[in-house]
Design goal:
By secondary structure, the chain is α/β, with parallel strands linked by helices. It has helices spanning about 15-25, 40-45, 65-75, 85-90, 95-115, 150-170, 190-200, 225-235, 250-260, 310-315, 320-344, and strands spanning about 5-10, 30-35, 55, 75-80, 120-125, 170-175, 180, 210, 215-220, 220, 240-245, 250, 265-270, 275-280, 285-290. It binds NADP nicotinamide-adenine-dinucleotide phosphate (NAP).
Length: about 350
């Protein structure tokens, strides 16, 4: 009989890629959506899998709602991807972020313990928990030092996953994933903001793209590969925690350079820090500028992951190069913006 996988947050980037990979592996896939949202299936539609997914409404803020869903469904595997996932917004909504990302996971763990203790659980943890990094590169043994309400809440969830595994014997894994992007990434995240913004500039819909800290360094991989790592974590004999990362780090500035080249701009930077801006020397027009209002109150300076444990135990490694990722995102955004124009 087909295994049942429950994916919370299926409308998000990772939810869509994970649904696709699990369906390809023969799973019955049930995804949660919030009744208060408009059940956005656009990402699942883009991957052509929306029709094969079953939906159930679930809100991480409501304990009884979570319990009822689990009691009814009795899933074999649970992938908890639901979260207020935007770090920047967590400074504006710290209490809400904590309620969803920290207490929401505790509610889920309690419900699993009660309703389906045999289920295997994946928790979407994050490299942001390393924050003000203590060691470079970061792996499963690196001390945490979170620098945002988002990361603090995720760390609370991470330790609860470890405690429920050790204390109650749940099969629960925490995947400490470094940034992973794709054409399905939310528009609020810097990589997508850049490729979407440059698509609009290239098509004459926008003059200048405004970005925050150009010197922040991130380890960016392709989301389509990371969901395979999530699945592999739940197929082991014993549950454990794993870092998934590419092992390369890039500044936002270098990502912008790569994206500019993908759109055919000849970008030249002027000035530094808060006053930096970039000119397309082909036209002499300023196409990108730093806006200090977009800086985070506390920044995470240098994220660089060491995924050697995932490679050794799970046989997982990131294969997509940053150039391929940028090309993929740039092409998708150019086509989307152009099609939108053609329709308008
Ligand atoms: N992408 C990365 O680089 C990265 C790295 C490390 C960890 N993570 C974590 O991995 C997970 C997936 O990331 P993603 O990029 O796919 O995020 P995403 O695109 O922002 O998706 C988040 C999902 O969570 C749902 N959600 C939000 N609040 C909820 C609530 N109160 N109850 C139930 N569902 C709720 C959203 O539903 P609506 O559609 O209703 O808003 C959406 O489906 C997140 O937990 C994120 O924090 C991501």
């Amino acid at each position: 009989m087909a295994k049942t996988a429950l994916i919370t947050g299926i409308s998000g980037q990772d939810g869509a890629y994970l649904a696709k990979t699990l369906l390809e592996r023969g799973y019955r896939v049930v995804g949660t959506y919030r009744r208060t949202s408009a059940m956005p299936t656009n990402r699942l539609d883009e991957l052509g899998v929306a029709q094969q997914v079953e939906f159930v409404d679930m809100e991480l803020l409501e304990e009884s709602n979570i319990r009822h869903v689990l009691q009814k469904l009795k899933p074999d595997e649970i992938y908890n991807l639901a979260a207020q996932s935007f770090v920047g917004l967590s400074f504006e909504l710290p209490l809400y972020t904590c309620d969803v990302n920290a207490m929401g996971v505790l509610r889920l763990l309690e419900a699993v313990r009660e309703a389906c203790p045999e289920a295997r659980l994946y928790q979407a943890s994050t490299s942001e928990m390393f924050g003000k990094v203590q060691v470079v590169p970061q792996n499963e043994r690196t001390p945490f030092c979170p620098r945002s309400p988002y990361a603090v809440a995720k760390l609370f969830a991470h330790w609860n996953v470890v405690n429920y595994r050790e204390g109650y014997g749940l099969y629960a894994c925490s995947g400490i994933l470094f940034n992973h992007e794709s054409p399905l990434r939310g528009l609020e995240f810097v990589t997508r903001k850049v490729t979407h913004g440059f698509a609009r500039v290239a098509l004459g819909l926008q003059d200048v793209l405004r970005v925050g800290n150009l010197e922040a360094k991130r380890d960016w991989g392709f989301a389509g590969e990371y969901v395979d790592g999530m699945w592999r974590m739940l197929q082991q004999d014993t549950p454990d925690d794993y870092v998934l990362a590419t092992g390369r780090t890039t500044t936002v500035r270098d990502f912008v350079d790569g994206a500019a080249a993908a759109f055919g701009f000849a970008l030249e930077w002027n000035g530094d820090g808060d006053s930096a801006s970039g000119v397309d020397t082909k036209t002499g027009r300023t196409i990108i500028a730093v806006d200090p209002l977009l800086y985070r109150p506390t920044e995470v300076a240098l994220l660089l992951g060491d995924a050697s444990k995932a490679k050794a135990v799970l046989g997982w490694e990131a294969k997509t190069s940053l150039e391929e990722l940028i090309q993929m995102m740039a092409r998708a955004d150019y086509d989307r913006v152009k099609t939108g124009l053609a329709r308008a």
